[in-house]
Design a protein that fits this description.
alpha/beta, Nucleotidyltransferase, domain 5, 2 domains, six-stranded mixed β-sheet, 15 helices, 14 strands, cytoplasm
């Protein structure tokens, strides 16, 4: 069975086509600069034999982008399917499920209306996610559309983890609470880590660290999310590429008054101009590392703050879980930066982490156990695969 997975951004469309019997990727690609008024969109398409195709053409909206993708997949010369009828479902990554969705769903009119009602909870991502679903419904009307939500995994959190200490009516009326994000990644790597270890996830106390341009942690107890670092939005938690992470809320009105900013400008400041970028001028950890090596003091400060914030969250989750069996690193930084992994784990030795620094050195993007056999906490590197999990969820739903 073939499953198409789509990740719709505001001006992009990322896709992968899976053969689910083998979980092989038959084709993958990315359409960028959708709706650009300053030039053509760029379409990068990769076939299973590794051949890469790049073209530029006008793409005014997500419907045109999807049509271009479907044309690639069915083209006589470079296509991988004879007919769109061979694609049995389309899985969509959707940012926000609110309190409505705690698992993936097949999208009918009712579900689409419910997803539409959550726009305000994710104003940067939800409109694009919805456009992707609508484009597929238009171009593939007989193919089931499945929505997989980034927030769903965290819906198992207890009220003590997700409620804010604000007037309760704001939760009741506006649903102001902690939702958490990166849930698809946290769910994939936690399940995969348990599989690698040959253990039942429900018997493990686990912390997963998704560390990329956006970063978050999840505390997993009895196989379910107990706590997570992101909150009402993805702004809370770790210091990130362009996001400030945790800070005193009183800073918000202080800066608003001092800089004469409106709410939207302040939101942009905290989400797109802060974090590593605000401190150093670099948003990428690779640039931070290079700047540190060159003696850049602000890069060193940003790095130290990042490491300390991660260690603080791991320590607090250790206390919440009543111990720790497994610590998992994933995503761009977690999978590829051995120095970050080493510096975090060195500071967790008192929690029972006996890290294998030699095995860790230079390791990038490969499944591995990075702790010594005698370690009380098993430290793992597990590359995330959110698209595969979306495909698996979609496959399960259409085969019920």
């Amino acid at each position: 069975m073939l499953i198409l997975v789509l990740n719709s951004g505001s001006s992009s469309l990322k896709y992968k086509l899976y053969q689910m019997q083998t979980e092989e990727v038959l084709a993958a690609g990315l359409v960028e600069r959708i709706g650009s008024t300053n030039g053509n969109a760029v379409i990068n398409h990769q076939r299973p034999d590794g051949e890469k195709i790049r073209i530029e053409q006008r793409v005014s909206d997500h419907s045109e982008a999807l049509k271009a993708v479907l044309d690639f997949l069915t083209a006589a010369d470079q296509g991988v399917v004879r007919s769109l009828d061979e694609i049995k479902a389309v899985g969509h990554r959707v940012l926000h499920g609110g309190e409505i969705f705690s698992s993936a769903v097949v999208v009918g009119d009712k579900e689409l209306a419910e997803i539409e009602s959550l726009r305000e909870l994710g104003p940067l991502h939800m409109p694009a996610n919805i456009m992707g679903i609508k484009a597929c419904r238009e171009l593939m009307p007989n193919t089931p559309q499945v929505a997989v939500f980034d927030t769903a995994f965290h819906q198992t959190m207890p009220r003590s983890s997700f409620l804010y200490a604000l007037p309760y009516e704001y939760y009741e009326k506006y649903k102001v609470r902690r939702y958490g994000f990166h849930g698809t990644s946290h769910r994939y790597v936690s399940n995969r880590a348990a599989q690698i270890l040959g253990k039942n996830l429900s018997k493990l106390k686990m912390i997963t660290l998704h560390m990329g341009n956006g970063s978050s942690a999840a505390a997993i107890k009895d196989g379910k999310c107990f706590d997570t670092s992101m909150g009402f939005t993805p702004l809370e938690g770790f210091v990130m590429g362009t996001r400030c992470g945790d800070m005193d809320p009183a800073i918000v009105p202080f800066l608003q008054n001092a800089l004469k900013l409106n709410p939207n400008e302040l939101d942009t400041l905290m989400n797109k101009k802060s974090g590593f970028l605000g401190m150093t001028g670099f948003s990428d950890m690779r640039d931070i590392q290079k700047a540190r090596e060159e003696g850049n003091e602000r890069a060193q400060d940003a790095y130290n703050i990042f490491i300390q914030r991660v260690v603080k969250y791991v320590g607090s989750y250790f206390a919440e879980l009543g111990g720790l069996d497994v610590l998992v690193f994933t995503a761009g930084i977690g999978e590829n930066d051995c120095q970050v992994r080493a510096d975090i784990c060195e500071r967790l030795a008192h929690l029972g982490v006996d890290f294998d620094f030699k095995k860790n050195e230079g390791l990038r993007g490969k499944e591995a156990i990075l702790s010594k056999a005698r370690s009380k906490v098993t430290v793992m590197l597990v590359p995330t695969n959110e698209e595969l999990l979306i495909a698996q969820d979609s496959y399960e739903l259409v085969n019920l």
